[in-house]
Amino acid sequence: MSTAPTARPHHIAIVMDGNGRWATRRFLPRLAGHRQGVESLRRCVRACVARGVGVLTVFAFSSENWNRPHDEVSGLMELMGKALVREVPQLAKDGVRLCFVGERAGLSAGMRGALEQAEALTPANTRLTLNVCFNYGGRWDIAQAAAKLAARGEPITEASLHAAMAMAHVPDPDLLIRTGGEKRISNFLLWQAAYAELYFSDRLWPDFDEAALDEAIADYAARERRFGRTSEQQQPAQPDPLCA
Ligand code: FPP
Fold it and tell me: For the structural domain made of 15-223, what CATH number should be given?
């Protein structure tokens, strides 16, 4: 049931699914779909900047994606390296702060260096924070946060875990979009998405354009976010302090 319109989402998170099918339908190699996925991501970043979205978090490479065929994994790594060289200067000019979220230890030294270099070019930007989840898994994030607290001998509470997470630099996502027709979370933002509004689109990621983004935002705007409270208590909405 929807009541008063919810404000525009400050933080949008996206599972960019469907690149492989986009390519296969065109009798192209899967990597061509990922290449088109990068184009779609560029368009989406611009659209988010134009719409005043504060944070965009995308799932670019999961902890489980290493299990894909070797050629696809190395192709994705190469694509990421090239995309960084090509896109980062413009992102920096556009006021985008780039953050990579995920386990760095599993990446090659070259890739780790490229990610650090890209992040170093944009730290003071405030227009949009773009979190690229790369070698990321929601379970990994919860486990690494717990391990960090245990190593420091600190108590494990909701607040301390939240602060030790790899996504602690941004508020929790308001809207979580998954393209490609599947209706699952796939180990993305397991902790942070506790109160996110979920939106599933049948469009394949390369086809997810500005109009599709606007549809998702409009759908979100018609939702009532209750954070465990009743509808009557929603005047005005009081978000969970951990999700502020
Ligand atoms: C899922 O589609 C998509 C990915 C595993 C990669 C997403 C990456 C990008 C959009 C490009 C930006 C990221 C990098 C690394 C440069 P799928 O391959 O599972 O599609 P399918 O479900 O149709 O097979």
Answer: 3.40.1180.10
